[in-house]
Amino acid sequence: MTYSIQTLNNISDKGLEFLPAANYVISDEAQNPDAILLRSFKMHNMEIPASLKAVGRAGAGVNNIPLDKMTEAGVVVFNAPGANSNAVKELVIAGMLMACRNLVLARDFAINLEGTDDEITKQVEAGKKNFGGFELPGRTLGVVGLGAIGVLVANAAISLGMRVIGFDPLISIDKAWELDAHVEKARDINHLLQEADFITFHVPLVDATKDLINADSLQMMKDNVVVLNFARNGIVNDEAVCAALDSGKVYAYVCDFPSNLLNNHQRVIALPHLGASTAEAEENCAIMVANEVRSYLEQGTIKNSVNMPEIDLPRLGETRLSMIHKNIPDMVGQVSHILGKVHANIIHMVNNSRDDVAVTVMDIESSLDEATQNELAGIEGMLRLRVL
Fold first, then answer.
1. Cβ–Cβ under 8 Å, residues 332 and 360
2. How confident is residue 60, by pLDDT bands cut at 50, 70 and 90?
3. Which terminal Cβ of the chain has fewer Cβ within 10 Å, N or C?
4. Where are the alpha helices (DSSP H) in the chain?
């Protein structure tokens, strides 16, 4: 079988190589794609093709994808958690160093010096006192969000001699095992805000995290705190942090989200969304989502989906049914009844749910005629039926 893949952004060739040309046609102009691969393209106003079965976001955040609409259409949305984590970790460490050593201000001073080399040297010696900074060892870093990126940041800061406090009420067991034993657990978010000299955020932008850093939370912090946001624009309230910079409460704000307000503030280092902008991160993300999409299209396997439960079932039998349906009673019973009428024996199956949606994968011994497939697809609450 040949699958059609539409790319809405440039996707690393290293990833596309995992979709073999014998079975996949990849184009940015595909009209009826089985899957879409993208990075930052905003899909909210895009008409969703009826043929679409999967979306692969070559990155972690999925704010640019209408998840509710995809779920209702039975489209599985994948992302690449952790694939760009080292790139973001390095940028956070760089951001801390740029802030505490005043490197951006110092660079601006240096490139604007005029005169002979001897005159520039004299100006350097006279002016360098304005850019004196402080070192990282012994300082406290607060890490909000201990997923793939947050764990790497916390561990790296420990190796630099910092004290690290972490906060994540939803931390997974796997990530907890990966944390350096010296990382301290914050009692709550306020405890972290009060203790930290540097605060970095690695959480999604949802209702609970929007304007997480605002005028009130800033007042809880130490004087001369450094705030870093390489997660999502909107977690830190720009107006509030600029006011705190003006008052001297905040020493520096480092982020990946420039704006007119931030660009005009001397104590802000706003970078052009560089968090995952390394060749290695782009390749890792592309490889991960290509494999996720391929496994789903060919086998019905779901891993790293943001809107569907995980599903993995070893393949047995002649025919596999991949079904996405509403999480309501008797769905599996209705499927079994229809298969029983045509004497289609179920070899094995798996069913898993997530909120209001469920996924069932069944392997059966025989093929199914078109009438049986249509009857299955017509079950009330069936969002997507695929026969593999």
1. yes
2. confident
3. N
4. 13-16, 67-72, 85-100, 103-111, 117-127, 148-159, 173-178, 189-195, 215-220, 238-247, 260-263, 279-299, 331-341, 370-377
Three-state DSSP state, 228: strand
Lay out the sheet containing 225-229: strands in order across: 184-185, 163-167, 140-144, 198-201, 225-229, 250-255, 268-270
222-269 pLDDT tens trace: 999 999 999 999 999 999 999 999 999 999 999 999 999 999 999 999
Q: What is the mean pLDDT of the chain?
A: 96
Give residue 127's Cα distance to chain centre: 42
Q: Which residue has the tokens 């640019």?
A: 64
pLDDT value of residue 318 = 86
Q: Is residue 307 part of a domain?
A: no
pLDDT in tens, 130-150: 999 999 999 999 999 999 999
Both 77 and 94 in a single domain?
A: no
Domain that holds residue 191: 85-270
Vertex 68 angle, CA 29 and 305, to 5°: 75
pLDDT tier at 16 (50, 70, 90 boundaries)?
Answer: very high
Would you give the distance in Å from CA 135 to the centre of its chain? 30
The single-letter code of the amino acid at 355 is D
Let me know whether 148 and 177 are in one domain.
yes
Dihedral sign, CA of 175, 181, 186, 192? negative
- Number of domain units in the chain: 3
